[in-house]
Amino acid sequence: MPILLGLDTGGTYTDAVLFDQAKGAIGKSDTGEAQISQVHGGVLATAKSLTTKHDLSIGLKGAIEAVLPRLPAGVRPADIALVSMSTTLATNAIVEGHGAPICLILLGYDAKSLERAGLKQALGTDPVVFAAGGHKPTGDEQAPLDIEAVRAAVLAHAPKVAAFAVSGYFSVRNPAHEIAVRQMIRDLTDKPVSCGHELTSKLDAPRRALTVALNARLIPQLQQLIRAVGGLLAEQGIKAPLMVVKGDGSLIDQQVALTCPVETILSGPAASLVGARHLSGADTVMVSDMGGTTTDIAMLRDGRPVLNKEGAVVGGWRTMVEAVAVHTFGLGGDSEVRIDEHQGFMVGPRRVVALSLLAHLYPYVLETLRAQFASEDMMAYRGQFALRQRPLDTGAEGLSEGQMKVWEALANGPVALSDLIFSPAIGRHLARLVDRGLVIISGLTPSDAAHVLGRQTSWCREAAEIGAELFLRRTPHAGWVPPADGKALAEAIVEQVVLQSGRVILETSLAEQAGIDHHHWGTLGRYLVDRSLSAEQAPSDLINAALKLNFPLVAIGAPVGSYYGEIARRLRTELIIPPHADVSNAVGAVAGGVMQRVAITITQPTEGVFRAHLPGGLKDFIDLEVAAAFARDTAASEAEALARKAGASEIELSHERADKVFEQPGGLKIFMESQVAATAFGRPALAQG
User: What is the value of pTM for the model shown?
Assistant: First the structure.
């Protein structure tokens, strides 16, 4: 049986897993989802390497080169039949507000659309172009497309953006205007372009615009990742197909992923759920995946990930991407420890580079920390550094003069913020580079606290200890009483991670069970949750506020050993940390199948006319059943073609149809619309040795 290579590029670590299909047989469940039938089976070897965002190939090379020597005797890298990877980069970029600059072109939208679905906040300072065009619900043109206005906007913005996003009003009913603008952008520029109708067939114009904008923003980052992996595989003589995990746990070919990177939102959590199922053998559990940047919480029911049909919510944005129903929180081993003026002592949501890791990678950082600790001068930003995170995505012309000066100052490695920020303007320029994900800050994190307490020994403990002491010298904040020393601060950080983790698990549970969002807990709800998670119930308490998680908790991810024993104790539930829990994502990456779904809507624009809104345009019929049969055949053909393009073989098709009929008093039935869908499922095509 073939040997498979699973990869996962996370915010902190890059993981690699060799998987023997003979020992962990991969099959298809009765719902069409790929499953590994033998728990724990199939994992031959694992390896981890630090993710290097400035050059992803370094971290990937470290993980791949560490795992390949453990191939079975007689098996060469060229014999590997499939490479599949999951990534949290798209999720992390959205959670942290990072992404390449884009231009969003809205066809037929009004200006008020920006106020809906959080579109204005998500776009920030990126340019938005409004142009005449778009369609009606029937698919008819609501206004002619102003192609010349679009042309002028494209030429004006192309030098300053990394990609274009195009969303037309009711484009899911007729994509003609989006297609015309996409072709024009390709003719005029070499920039990638995303269209709304390519990503979803659902109505809701503002959310569709948000989704396509996020998709365009993510293209440069995913391009960097896929190019890095492709180059490394060629270097090792691996000729196997390269697949990427989608947010629903299924797989797509690398080329398809490059066009639709937004579909890899929650790729990492989806892969970790699949991996957690196979590594733990648990069927109905809550899974908490804690990485360096985020904690992702989701449910397995009867061994299958629960999907969010309404669209994935990431970083507060509700997209139109069907993915695992995961709740993502900015809480991980590398989350920033900070004092919030409203909430007090907090961890996250921003990811920073741990001081212990920074000093491990750049030894001169330790000398700088020692000098700051020895100095009695008042010093702003002590114990904080800035460093480049990844290459420029637009070239020098995409930066202002001030931003370029900051960028150049970081050319040779990390710089202490106390040396870098000498005016408020410099601080603003730096903040913009951080927002774009080009630069990252280094500061105190839970990983540093673990080093101070001796729970982690991978990096530089002294840097963590000095960083904790420097944190205590910061300007006092009202309502926060600093601990006595660095060790006490480290213990407070661990306690804060336990409390915040417990809160988000209970938040997820209440949202799933009762639809109660944490914003609606109120004072009583927050009190009960916090009392339940306190280390001990006070003897003087009149009420026992103990909440219990009824399902076992499966914890996966590198940091969970430091926190989840205590978290499970306070949640009064069973804890499962399965074998290979730290590489669950990479295991899940090789367990999925290819699945593509195409849905076609049939409407009745006028009495006696049934209009099929097809991927390539409109087609009218005078008989509903004829229209439905044509739509079913078209959907099946499109789904099969998409599945083959996504890298599937041995494809199986399934169909579904749902009619919406309004029944008036007296029994008269009025046809509203029909949804005809086809789903194509297949295993990834393997390289033949």
Answer: 0.73
